[in-house]
């Protein structure tokens, strides 16, 4: 397993924060990150959080939990499939106590039982397992889900609640071994939190609501929160209120009877994790440190001091390659034959750009905050808030199509960004769109790949898990990348009635983890497929439509990165641009024998300039007005 190797950004993180966790006294905050580290912050003065220590895993760190019986003990859960138990001294001196045996998949969440000697781990394999922190011994199976288990919370009475992508909420008592109580929802549940008294369990629903449940999983009330999925919940210490992080990029404050108290928006915030201690709220960030807010007023107390620039999207604009980043910068690179060239940066916003599309001289960007931005070379404009992040964009038949986390196609007028139509398209987030003559392809978390226009669409194939990306080679071939660790590729046919069909579909094997991005090169009769994975590998396959069995033994690693790969873009039939979250950019081409090779290597960190501060402030003001 390769180890994340990202350069440190000052005293903070080098990539977005995945989790925040306060020690019970509020004096320490642990932040976890995609950069594979956990930073311990002194939050005794919450207006000036100070880093004390940095802990490392091999892969991204998904969660942490402070021991309820010993305030110097911290558990950290990672995509390296381990949970580590640390002792963190008051001055930041840390020692590793033990590492739990490797799990079969990434660990998404961890929680201590009240005795401080046992802890529950939940994993992407759907299992919840009970462990001894004293000697690292496995104790028991504590539950299971049919899909990824996303979060665990333990009540003051020792009841264990787990939630998952299968929509299951389960409550069990590991001390009695009784059958768990369960409640099933129609869609994914990603967050849960017991109130401090243990009387209520808050469940964050994919439809944007939070249910408050009893320990018997009876609904006390349903609180509408957001137009997009609710992701994380944290309770005030006296259980009188709670804070919700949602995929609309906002923090939502409610009292226990469901009255909205505050709504906090900041494009830099990533509210997949929220924590509360005393009167301070901590939340994750796409920047290099945590955001801290006042629980009573919702006012900002402290914010991170530096951006991270992980690339999320690529587009072609004339002879420029455009790179959309976590910081809101769009970096334009013009290269010449020697591999050097000019670089310019434009700050579209100060939060993540998830998608890019171009139409002539106009550049469009979809944001995590749920806006589409338009830059015509001189003027930056924004749509109104669209209600959910926009991970995919394409231009089709004179209309801008935005794919959202809510599974919708939003048809926007390109010149004004006015919303023309909202279409229920997929049963999950529309992760990727790509234009083909006469229509466009879409890939979504409902496991499907489809083709057609905005309304009349045909399913091409399904994967065994969510689909991250889809790519095309003209109108003759398509490929898709999935969390099921495979790439599918097939020939495309469009019938006279306008429906699309896929033939000779092949499944390509190689990556040991989720495949994030994909592209096609060469000729549709014998295409080359390249794909990038969360396992840091760039893979390549030569497709033979007449020998599907060859795919079981085909494929090779073309290059390795220092983090997962994020996005790809076919520049010409013979070249593809590839970007990784480590900031590395490769141009892949075909040699004289039609085999893929690395033509050019760049690094985003070396390309960035430092003159974007003024534009960033303008972009924040613009998007605030548009909201």
What does this structure look like?
The protein has 627 residues and is mainly beta. It folds into 2 domains: 284 residues, YVTN repeat-like/Quinoprotein amine dehydrogenase (Methylamine Dehydrogenase, Chain H), CATH 2.130.10; 307 residues, YVTN repeat-like/Quinoprotein amine dehydrogenase (Methylamine Dehydrogenase, Chain H). It is built from 2 helices and 56 strands. The strands form 14 sheets. A 4-stranded antiparallel β-sheet has the order 1-2-3-4, with no helix packed on it. The two termini are 43 Å apart. The C terminus is likely disordered. Keywords: Repeat, WD repeat.
Relevant terms:
single chain, about 625 residues, mainly beta, Methylamine Dehydrogenase, Chain H, 4-stranded antiparallel beta sheet, about 5% helix
What's the gist of this structure?
With 627 residues, the chain is mainly beta.
What is the strand and helix layout of this fold?
Blueprint: E1 17-22, E2 28-33, E3 37-42, E4 50-56, E5 61-66, E6 73-78, E7 83-88, E8 94-99, E9 107-112, E10 118-123, E11 127-132, E12 138-144, E13 149-154, E14 160-164, E15 168-172, E16 181-184, E17 189-194, E18 201-205, E19 209-213, E20 219-224, E21 230-235, E22 241-246, E23 250-255, E24 260-265, E25 269-277, E26 280-285, E27 291-294, E28 300-302, E29 311-317, E30 320-325, E31 329-335, E32 341-347, E33 353-359, E34 362-367, E35 372-375, E36 380-382, E37 392-396, E38 399-403, E39 408-412, E40 419-424, E41 430-436, E42 439-444, E43 448-452, E44 457-462, E45 467-473, E46 477-482, E47 486-494, E48 500-509, E49 515-521, E50 528-533, E51 537-542, E52 556-560, E53 565-572, E54 575-580, E55 584-590, E56 596-603, H1 604-607, H2 613-626
Antiparallel strand pairs: 1-2, 2-3, 3-4, 5-6, 6-7, 7-8, 9-10, 10-11, 11-12, 13-14, 14-15, 15-16, 17-18, 18-19, 19-20, 21-22, 22-23, 23-24, 25-26, 26-27, 27-28, 29-30, 30-31, 31-32, 33-34, 34-35, 35-36, 37-38, 38-39, 39-40, 41-42, 42-43, 43-44, 45-46, 46-47, 47-48, 49-50, 50-51, 51-52, 53-54, ...
WD repeats: 10-42, 54-88, 100-141
Protein name: WD40 repeat domain-containing protein
Keywords: Repeat, WD repeat
